[in-house]
Amino acid sequence: MAEHPELVAEMPAVARLSTPERLKHAQKRRAQQLKKWAQAEKESQGSKVGAERKRRKRSDGNTKRVTFPASVQLLEAAARHDAEEVRHFLASGISPDLCNEDGLTALHQCCIDDAGKVVPVLLDAGADVNARDSELWTPLHAAATCGHLHLVRLLIQRGADLLATNSDGNMPYDLCEDELTLDCLESAMAEQGITQEKIEEARGATEREMMVEIGQLVEAGADLDAPRGHGATLLHITAANGYAEAAELLLEHQASVGSRDEDGWQPLHAAACWGQVQMVELLVAHGADLNGKSVLDETPLDVCGDEEVRAKLLELKHKHEAVMRSHHRHKSLLQRRTSSAGSRGKVVRRVSVSERSSLYRREHEREAIVWQRAARRDSAEDDDDGQTDAELRRRAAADPPAPSPPRNGSALCTHGPGTGATVHPVPDPAPRHHLPATLPDLKRHRAATKLQHLPGGDAATPMGRGDTGDTGGTGVAGGAGDGAGEPPLLKLTAPAEEPPAQKQRCCKVM
């Protein structure tokens, strides 16, 4: 059978045909239409038979059906506020306290959704009015938070705990923002005689229980870092809940601040996430890593949502970085001091060489002075002619003075047996460059001087470097003066010291 667009397209051609031709064309189109209709009917009959066969086959075999746990069915019916279906489930033996993976019961769900018709059905079936979820919330917490006044009254009538605390340490009245609902809660607390002391005692009950448990574990020698739910340790739990005393007890017994749960969170992550400022300071003081990362590469600062805790973390981080920079500077200073030990040793060695040179110089000078004094004593006490100094002085006073010899020592004056004096030329003493310069030369020079004395008092003694004797400036035989024959002082040269290393500029300041 031709489609509609095809029929529309051939209408101009049909309009040009004659009347008999138009009739023939119409009959042809009708035959095609009937033929396709019959074919469609045949196919539809076959499909119905096939469907019937399939249905029969499924009914004959075992069929698979999707089923849900009873807890899911009960929670789903409560969420739909279907009191009849809830009653039907409870009548079939399902427990009203069934919960999901978060610990949420049907009563929690109804208090959140304000299902006023379902709540009495659950309570009449024996549902726990103080049931707790994974974060220790009770149905009264949920109703007070949402401001459902009539449900709060109903729960209080059925025995709800007004002092129940959740994981954050909050009671139902702490979470209530509706004025009428808050007045209802406070009136009920006043009627039950709840005072501030009881409130504080109730808030610390969980921490006291945890401290008792920690004490038992310490006495038993158990591992305080043993993982619990989701891999969290006791220190994770105390950090998240702000239990400072329990945390101090754990840290006192060497609980690890670096333990991780299944998400890679350390106790500091938990304290930062739940806004526990005191716990943040305590953990950092015990060496918690401010830059520790979780499985998702999150630091405690990344998971922190409280501005006060965030500011404290930033402050602690800056202080920690300042302390580390100070440690690095101290460490580098120690390294520089250690590396300068070699140069300090060189300075000590240079000073030692200088001191040794000075010591050698002083010893040489003292030795030369000793030799000079010994020479003076020999010449004064024991002359070659056997006369003493007093006799020489008397003889010199009795004899006429003799002319002074030349100052360069070119003549030797002697006294003969006659009345006159005889002058004998003598060679000049050794030039200055031939004078003894060392201690052995000095000894040889002294020995040669003593051998040149003549016996009988007529021997001549050369004067040393043009110096005159003690008797009026005349060189007398056998009476060498204090300056006669004295060796000159040694002119010692100190060993050459190492020149100090030239300083090089290390920066542009020098």
Describe this structure in words.
- The chain is an all-alpha fold and 510 residues long.
- The protein folds into four domains: 43 residues; 134 residues, Serine Threonine Protein Phosphatase 5, Tetratricopeptide repeat (Alpha Horseshoe); 116 residues, Ankyrin repeat-containing domain (Serine Threonine Protein Phosphatase 5, Tetratricopeptide repeat); 108 residues, no CATH class.
- It is 54% helix and 2% strand.
- The protein contains 20 helices and two strands.
- Strands 1-2 form a two-stranded antiparallel ribbon.
- A hairpin with a 5-residue loop joins β1 and β2.
- α8 packs parallel to α10 and α16 packs parallel to α17.
- About 15% of the residues have low confidence.
Which key phrases capture this entry?
Serine Threonine Protein Phosphatase 5, Tetratricopeptide repeat, two-stranded antiparallel sheet, mainly alpha, 4 domains, 54% helix
Q: Spans with pLDDT under 50 lasting ≥5 residues?
A: 340-351, 401-434, 454-486
Strand order across the largest sheet? 1-2
Percent helix, as a range, is 40-55%
Give the full name of the CATH homologous superfamily of the largest domain.
Ankyrin repeat-containing domain
Rg from C-alpha positions? 62 Å
* Structural class category: mainly alpha
Q: Mind summarizing the main beta sheet?
A: 2 strands, antiparallel
Q: Give the termini separation.
A: 107 Å
CATH class of the largest domain: Mainly Alpha
Question: What is the N-to-C succession of helices and strands?
Answer: HHHHHHHHHHHHHHHHHHHEEH
Number of domains: 4
Mean pLDDT: 75
How large a portion of the residues is in β-strands, by DSSP E?
Answer: under 5%
**CATH architecture field of the largest domain:** Alpha Horseshoe
Number of helices: 20
Under CATH, the topology of the largest domain can be stated as Serine Threonine Protein Phosphatase 5, Tetratricopeptide repeat
CA-based shape:
elongated
DSSP strand count: 2
